[in-house]
Design brief:
- The chain is mainly α and 260 residues long.
- The chain folds into 2 domains: 1-42 and 169-260, no CATH class; 46-166, Zinc/RING finger domain, C3HC4 (zinc finger) (Herpes Virus-1, 2-Layer Sandwich).
- It is built from 9 helices and 3 strands, in the order ααββαβαααααα.
- 28% of the residues are buried.
Length: 260
C-alpha cells in the first residue's frame, strides 16, 4: 500500500495537499466568478446617485447640442444594457470605471472636465472614487481612427496620468478586483496587449503562489489545523490578485505617460 505522504497523484507530494490545492483553486475560481456575476448584476442599476444628479444634468446640457449636431437621428435606449446613464443614449466609445460602470467616453470626460477638474471624480452611479478609466471600445470603434476617438483617448490618458498612480485603500482595491482583473486577463492574452516583462512578472508571481500552495511548508499547515490551514492559501491568492491589480494600475499610468 502506497503511503499518502508520498503521493499517488503527484510523486513526492501528499495526496491531501494535492486535493486541498485543487479544492482551493476551484473554490477561488467559483468565488471570483460569483463576485464578477454579483458585480455585473449590481451594475444593471443605471440610476444616478442623488449627490451626482446636478452634475449629470449639467453634463447632459453641455452634451446635448454636440450630440444632436453630430447625430440628429441618435436614439435613446432607456433601460437597455447599451445605454449610457449620463446622456441616456446608446453608448459610443465606451469607457469603464474601476467600479465597473460604463459610460460614453465623451460623457464621462465632460462630467470630469466641467465638474471636479482638479481632482478625481466620483462615479455618478455608486459615488466610488474613479481612480482609473479603461477603454471599452467595440471592435468597429477600435479599428476606427476618428478625431473624436483620438480626443477621448487623450483625455483618458490625461485622467489616468493624474489619478491612477495615487495610493488606493485596500478596501477599494478589493472592490475593484473584478473590473481590473477582467481587463488584465483580456490584455494578457491579446496580441498587442501587455508588454513582455509585465507578463513575465505576473507568470512568475503565479508560479510562486502555486508552489507555496502545494508545498507542505505552510504558515498554517493543513495537516495540523485541517480546513483552517487553507486560510493562509486563500490569503496568498487574494494578495496575488491585489498585487496583479496594483501592477495593472501602474501599467495603465505608465502607458498614459507614454501616450502624452
Amino acid at each position: 500500500m502506497v503511503s499518502s505522504s508520498r503521493g499517488t497523484v503527484i510523486e513526492g507530494i501528499g495526496d491531501d495537499l494535492v486535493y486541498a490545492g485543487s479544492a482551493l483553486f476551484g473554490g477561488t475560481f467559483v468565488l471570483i466568478a460569483t463576485i464578477v456575476y454579483w458585480t455585473k448584476m449590481r451594475h444593471q442599476n443605471y440610476e444616478i446617485h442623488p449627490d451626482s444628479q446636478a452634475s449629470v444634468l449639467d453634463a447632459r446640457e453641455r452634451l446635448s447640442q454636440h450630440s444632436m449636431a453630430a447625430d440628429p437621428e441618435r436614439r435613446t435606449f432607456r433601460g437597455s444594457d447599451i445605454m449610457c446613464p449620463i446622456c441616456l443614449g446608446e453608448r459610443q466609445l465606451s469607457v469603464e470605471t474601476n467600479c465597473g460602470h460604463i459610460f460614453c467616453g465623451q460623457c464621462i470626460t465632460t462630467y470630469w472636465q466641467h465638474g471636479n477638474w482638479l481632482g478625481a471624480v466620483r462615479c455618478p452611479i455608486c459615488r466610488q472614487e474613479v481612480s482609473i478609466l479603461l477603454h471599452n471600445f467595440s471592435d468597429l470603434e477600435t479599428n476606427n481612427q476618428s478625431e473624436e476617438k483620438i480626443g477621448i483617448i487623450h483625455l483618458i490618458a490625461m485622467y489616468n496620468r493624474r489619478f491612477s498612480g495615487r495610493p488606493v485603500p485596500l478596501v477599494d482595491q478589493l472592490r475593484d478586483l473584478p473590473t481590473l482583473l477582467r481587463h488584465l486577463l483580456a490584455e494578457f492574452f491579446s496580441l498587442h496587449g501587455l508588454v513582455l516583462m509585465f507578463r513575465i512578472r505576473l507568470i512568475v508571481c503565479c508560479i510562486m503562489a502555486f508552489i507555496y500552495i502545494v508545498s507542505p511548508l505552510d504558515i498554517i499547515p493543513e495537516s495540523a489545523f485541517g480546513i483552517l490551514g487553507l486560510l493562509d492559501d486563500v490569503f496568498v491568492m487574494v494578495l496575488l490578485a491585489v498585487y496583479a491589480s496594483v501592477l495593472y494600475r501602474r501599467y495603465v499610468a505608465d502607458q498614459a505617460m507614454d501616450d502624452d
